[in-house]
């Protein structure tokens, strides 16, 4: 089976009835039962290990700085080295998924990069070699964001239609479960290991546990590829011709709204992830929390989004109005940063609300790309979006560490608020440009279903 057909949607098609096991709901790729279990479960766990390991440094911030004898700037470099390769590589990763590897082989290759990168990171700590740890994060980053591109492509392929917002919310939920588990078990695990092995060796052993989570996600990539290949064979997917496959110059034809979505993505995410990366010490210093309590507060965005993302995704599927929800998410997050910066209100309040607003934005933002970009170009489009996001994260992670070292956390919060204002401006522009083109991105769910029905009717008439 050619990889060129791997982005073809697997639902909403009038395939002939299937016989034998392939025709029964548990085995039929078109059935809800098969698509939800095992396929959706595997899609959700595909990036579990990656998200678990991404914030290993944040969960062990104090410990890592002490054991490795580094400052905040060097600590935040672990996040920058993750992001730098993705400034370019995840864009090419998406292109390779669309053009060469296909989504199945791409998911396996990028999962391998994630696993190997985490192993190198852990080895660097075990032998107290800071440069090797940076190399590990770089290799980890090569796979991490491109794996997210593959995950998004799988989600659109299997669930494009009325379920997509919910599915994006659910896969985000599982990813955040990985981050939440990391935030809440890494320090206790370190303390347990510290009873027998101390210092940077203890840290290295703890990081090897994260590598085990990456192996689990790699196994999910193999299983998902098997079920996806089987679905293509059973349903006899039509291949995309070489003429229809994406060419790199096609990027220049992407609509302006695609670039506005990318700007919103980077301007919003740089005000969330770098903040969480530095949040442990912030909550200890400003609110006088213990390391354990500060870790709990710092992980609230992940905990809340793990629960709320599929719920908001389901609601957005039923209501529509994606651009409206994106703007709401930005405004509420801006308010949360203001509470943290200028008040001493219990930080649990701001972080819980931030988790809700993050869930709303992510559930509404990412599916919009599939509404304006053809299926055979989605990997490239998501790759570009991830590349722009990681350029921002790489630069802002370094800048945030320098700001904290030189000016403190109040200036850092003002810095994050400025980025959220930029995201808000881009959100308003997205609404205006989309409205000028017919308002496709901000349609209600009912209007979108009617538009789709009319389009299918016109195709049948032809």
From TrEMBL:
Gene Ontology cellular component annotations, sorted alphabetically: lysosomal membrane
Assembly with partners or alone: Homodimer. Interacts with lysosomal protein GLMP (via lumenal domain); the interaction starts while both proteins are still in the endoplasmic reticulum and is required for stabilization of MFSD1 in lysosomes but has no direct effect on its targeting to lysosomes or transporter activity.
InterPro entries: MFS, MFS_dom, MFS_trans_sf, MFSD1
MF GO annotations: transmembrane transporter activity
Database matches in Pfam families: MFS_1
Membrane topology term: Multi-pass membrane protein
Family: Belongs to the major facilitator superfamily.
Catalytic activity entry: L-alanyl-L-lysine(out) = L-alanyl-L-lysine(in); L-alpha-aminoacyl-L-arginine(out) = L-alpha-aminoacyl-L-arginine(in); L-arginyl-glycine(out) = L-arginyl-glycine(in); L-lysyl-L-alpha-amino acid(out) = L-lysyl-L-alpha-amino acid(in)
Residues spanning the membrane: 36-54, 75-97, 103-123, 130-150, 205-227, 248-276, 296-316, 323-342, 348-369, 381-404, 410-433
Family annotation (CDD domains): MFS_MFSD1
Domain of life: Eukaryota
Domain Major facilitator superfamily (MFS) profile: 36-438
Cell compartment(s), UniProt: Lysosome membrane
Keywords from the named record: Lysosome, Membrane, Transmembrane, Transmembrane helix, Transport
Chain's role: Lysosomal dipeptide uniporter that selectively exports lysine, arginine or histidine-containing dipeptides with a net positive charge from the lysosome lumen into the cytosol. Could play a role in a specific type of protein O-glycosylation indirectly regulating macrophages migration and tissue invasion. Also essential for liver homeostasis.
Protein name, UniProt field: Lysosomal dipeptide transporter MFSD1
